[in-house]
Specification:
By secondary structure, the chain is an alpha/beta fold. It folds into three domains: 270 residues, L-arginine/glycine Amidinotransferase, Chain A, CATH 3.75.10.10; 79 residues, 2-Layer Sandwich (Alpha-Beta Plaits), CATH 3.30.70.2690; 232 residues, putative lor/sdh protein like domains (Rossmann fold, 3-Layer(aba) Sandwich). Strands 21-26-24-25-23-22-27 form a seven-stranded mixed sheet, with no helix packed on it. Strands 32-29-28-33-34-35 form a six-stranded parallel sheet, with helices on both faces. Helix 1 links the parallel strand 1 and strand 2. Bound molecules: arginine (ARG).
Length: 704
């Protein structure tokens, strides 16, 4: 008997399943047999007594789960951190456990109220005593981990539990002697699995199957080479034998009904302190403020969900509710994350939602120099479509050329400090780049309710059938186009060849002719098919009048390309009278600038097609400057490219027959972008009809 090892147990005199606080208890209320429970507990007690000392804490009437002494607290040396139960059903156990620890000479630490932590059920020492694994996600709060590190002077590694069947760390994780680890990987998130793999070499990790996991094979008590558990498959037994362990199975199914087994029924109260280890905790916390229509826009839910989804944890410290319909609310939220990396990920997304530091906590953005041209410092902040500001020398500076997937470069010019979004390839040695997530905010105007509804294309929330929806979009787009044109604004169209194939070419040409389009961003194909149609009446060999394939028509587009190549450019072909109609004709004729960006599948290409994609991207970006409205017509490639270059505040209408394209583009979390799933030819035809009716003398009858 290894006499220096002691366990604490509590006899099941009052044990029963009286309530449901974990999935195992569901359907098991009063279904366990007291006699069998007593017998099973006695057997476990007996086995342990052969290998260690077992102390007993008196059981208490009315506290049926007190048998699970693992949840009494977390012991290291003569110090204990007492549990703070999440559920009121177990909170009454706390004073009894506290009394036992005090009577037995332990120094008792108690966590602040409302900070749940469920003792050794959720915190397991590495068997060499070098660090502490601490679970969170269901019963214990991440914010309790720094207290453990401080009071027990040990390094704490936080693991996030994600399967509610394994709600306590000890239900799916069991460190064993000699650095082995028995665990069920699927109970943890990816980050936690990575952490485990970093700390425990693969030859020491014994990953169990789900079948073993649901038999609580990880809920095992390890004394030297003995591992006591409810049940183990023969495979698992063999694996453990290989690692030098002997499994002792002892049935505990009466306790499984309450969600516990061998380990839960015991608390190791002798855990030697390792002198050389000291406190270290990677949990970070930060307080952020959220402002706006937090409740009615769902912003608060989205923010809090995001924190949890990403593996963090939160406390709402202060919520100021805007009582009037128009007034905004504000909330100060303490965000905790298990590591700096996770914190950065959470904060950068909260920044997108408009979260800001509390004024007293504001700090300047962190900058690091570019040391290799075209390469950002590792930890660079990745920009989004939201208008952004960075704090430099104590004041907030607006970031220019806002776009997504860039870095923020700070340069000193004659006019002072300039912050701008730069693509990685444009970074130059000496540029200072914003890193980390400190001193960055996005600027949101919390619009009034009424404004919100009128600014946003309001059919977004209209919940109408799709045909009616198309009509509504068309009406509103027509209205916008008129407004922008008559106000001297800028509409940019990006369009794919489907526009021509579906018979929309004439309508798009008309739009250009009537001054509704200020720039066209496209690829080689639409221009080729448009020119093919203008010259030969076919689009990719299809007769556009009769809708049938023309014999030999598949060669038409190459002939069209060849002709333009002979003239040197589309403009020269227009000038020479070779092209007399169509989209490209109208662009040239009406001095509407266009950029045709090349791609790997292009035939020809046309002399105008920019095959240097870096140049094409720059030309796109240039033509997009100052756009008020972007019409995206059936081109996934160019629409996504354009979407990435465009900050919020620019209205975008994406038309595509493929719902996936539309969702991808309209799902930018900004109210200005809308998508409509329909045939683009039909859409353009309806749009022109609508525009024609707007210009008619009966315009007032249309109902605007
Ligand atoms: N019914 C108890 C609860 O849900 C079971 C506790 C099991 N204990 C453990 N250390 N896993 O709290």
């Amino acid at each position: 008997m290894a006499s220096e090892i002691s366990f604490l147990m509590c006899a099941p005199d009052y044990y029963d399943v009286d309530y449901v606080i974990n999935p195992w208890m569901e359907g098991n209320i009063h279904k366990s047999s007291r006699d069998r429970a007593v017998q099973q507990w006695e057997q476990l007690h007996q086995i342990l007594k052969e290998h260690a000392i077992v102390d007993l804490v008196p059981s208490q009437k009315g506290w049926p789960d007190m048998v699970f002494t693992a949840n009494a607290g977390l012991v290291l040396g003569k110090t204990v951190v007492l549990s703070r139960f999440l559920h009121k059903e177990r909170q009454g156990e706390e004073p009894y456990f506290k009394q036992w620890f005090e009577e037995n000479g332990y120094k008792v630490h108690e966590l602040p109220k409302d900070l749940p932590f469920e003792g050794a059920g959720d915190a397991l020492l590495d068997r060499e005593g070098l660090w502490l694994w601490a679970g969170y996600g269901f019963r214990s709060e991440l914010d309790s981990h720094p207290y453990l590190a401080k009071w027990l002077d040990i390094e704490v590694l936080s693991l996030r539990l994600i399967d509610e069947r394994f709600y306590h760390l000890d239900t799916c994780f069991c460190p064993l002697k000699n650095g082995y680890l028995l665990y069920y990987p699927a109970a943890f998130d990816a980050y936690s699995n990575r952490l485990i793999e970093m700390r425990v070499p693969s030859e020491k990790r014994i990953a169990i199957t789900e079948a073993d996991a649901v038999n609580f094979s990880c809920n095992a008590v390890n004394v030297d080479h003995i591992v006591v558990m409810n049940k183990a498959s023969s495979g698992l037994k063999a694996q453990l034998a290989n690692a030098g362990f002997q499994v002792i199975e002892t049935p505990l199914n009466e306790f499984l009904k309450a969600g516990g087994a061998a380990k839960c029924l015991t608390l190791r109260v002798t855990e030697p302190v390792q002198e050389e280890v000291h406190a270290n905790v990677s949990v970070e916390s930060r307080i952020l403020r959220l402002e706006g229509h937090l409740l009615d826009s769902g912003l608060i839910n989205r923010s809090l969900d995001l924190i949890i989804d990403k593996g963090g944890s939160f406390q709402v410290l202060n919520f100021q509710l805007g009582v009037q319909r128009q007034s905004t609310s504000s909330a100060d939220v303490k965000v905790s994350a298990p590591s700096h990396n996770v914190m950065e990920e959470i904060i950068s997304q909260l920044i997108d939602l408009g979260a800001v530091d509390l004024p007293q906590d504001e700090r300047d953005a962190k900058l690091e120099p570019v040391v290799q041209s075209g390469v950002a410092p590792d930890d660079f902040y990745v920009t989004t479509i939201y208008s952004t500001e960075v704090r430099l020398f104590g004041s907030w500076v607006k970031v220019h050329n806002q776009r997504m997937d860039g870095a923020i470069a700070i340069t000193q010019t004659d006019h002072g400090i300039v912050a701008q979004c730069k693509l990685l390839r444009d970074l130059e040695i000496g540029d200072m780049v914003v890193v980390d997530v400190q001193g960055i905010r996005t600027v949101r105007k919390p619009e009034l309710r009424e404004q919100r509804n009128s600014q946003e294309f309001s059919f977004m929330s209209a919940g109408v059938s799709s045909e009616r929806r198309v009509e509504l979009v068309v009406e509103q787009v027509a209205w916008e186009l008129r407004k922008v044109r008559d106000g001297g604004g800028k509409v940019v169209v990006t369009a794919g060849p489907v526009v021509i194939h579906t018979g929309g070419g004439d309508h798009l040409a008309q739009l250009i002719r009537e001054g509704y389009v200020q720039a066209l961003l496209a690829g080689n194909a639409i221009a080729v098919h448009d020119i093919e149609q203008a010259m030969m009446g076919t689009s990719l060999g299809m007769d556009m009048q009769r809708g049938i394939a023309v014999r030999g028509g598949h060669r038409h587009h190459l002939k069209a390309i060849n002709t333009i190549r002979r003239y040197g450019s589309i403009a020269k072909a227009v000038e020479a009278g070779v092209i007399k109609s169509g989209v490209m004709y109208e662009c040239v004729h009406n001095h509407v600038p266009f950029c045709l960006a090349g791609s790997i599948r292009d035939d020809g290409p046309l002399p105008d097609t920019q095959m240097d994609l870096i140049k094409a991207q720059a030309e796109y970006a240039e033509l997009l400057k100052g756009a008020d409205l972007i019409l995206m017509l059936s081109t996934m490639l160019h629409s996504i490219g354009v979407g990435n270059m465009t900050p919020t505040g620019v209205k975008m209408v994406c038309v595509d027959i493929n719902p996936a394209v539309v969702t991808k583009l309209s799902d930018r979390g900004s109210v200005e972008s809308v998508g409509v799933v329909t045939d683009v030819g039909l859409f353009l035809s309806l749009l022109m009809q609508q525009l024609d009716s707007l210009t008619s003398p009966y315009v007032s009858k249309v109902g605007y």
